[in-house]
């Protein structure tokens, strides 16, 4: 089962963003799924981004860089969508899977801002990157 299918199986719709990085000619595709909060697409929305890169380096074991991160984000999406039936959630959650991390990851927050159609309303409250388990607020 691929990333899109796993997200779809828990009720999330995905969008894709294809790009060619400045440093090369290869096509990359980022995958996003949005679990909308009650204030989605308003100035009161607060957004948590949970992300991992799904590509790997040629000489790297893909299970660690970054199959484990992808699995963690997918499991988080499964659990969080299930909890929506039990608890009120106040924030929007974006599940992001980045391609070509080495070329574009530093600009990933800008990418999310441009691609999620929320314009100036985005209020990023945190990012969890499952590659190096970094939490920023």
Automatic annotation (TrEMBL):
Its cofactor is Zn(2+). It comes from the Eukaryota. One of its GO terms (molecular function) is metalloexopeptidase activity. Residues 42-99 form the Peptidase M28 domain. InterPro entries: M28_fam (IPR045175), Peptidase_M28 (IPR007484). GO terms for biological process: proteolysis. SUPFAM superfamilies: Zn-dependent exopeptidases. Belongs to the peptidase M28 family. M28B subfamily. This is Peptidase M28 domain-containing protein. It comes from Necator americanus (Human hookworm).
């Amino acid at each position: 089962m691929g990333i899109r299918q796993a997200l779809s199986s828990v009720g999330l719709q995905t969008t894709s963003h294809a790009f060619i990085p400045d440093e090369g000619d290869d096509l990359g595709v980022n995958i996003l799924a949005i679990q909308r909060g009650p204030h989605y697409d308003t100035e009161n929305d607060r957004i948590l981004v949970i992300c991992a890169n799904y590509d790997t380096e040629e000489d790297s074991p893909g299970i660690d860089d970054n199959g484990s991160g992808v699995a963690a984000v997918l499991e988080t999406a499964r659990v969080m969508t299930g909890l929506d039936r039990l608890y009120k959630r106040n924030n929007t959650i974006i599940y992001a899977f980045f391609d070509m991390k080495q070329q574009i990851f530093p600009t990933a927050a800008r990418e999310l801002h441009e691609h999620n159609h929320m314009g100036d309303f985005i209020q990023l409250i945190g990012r969890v990157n499952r590659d190096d388990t970094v939490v920023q607020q």
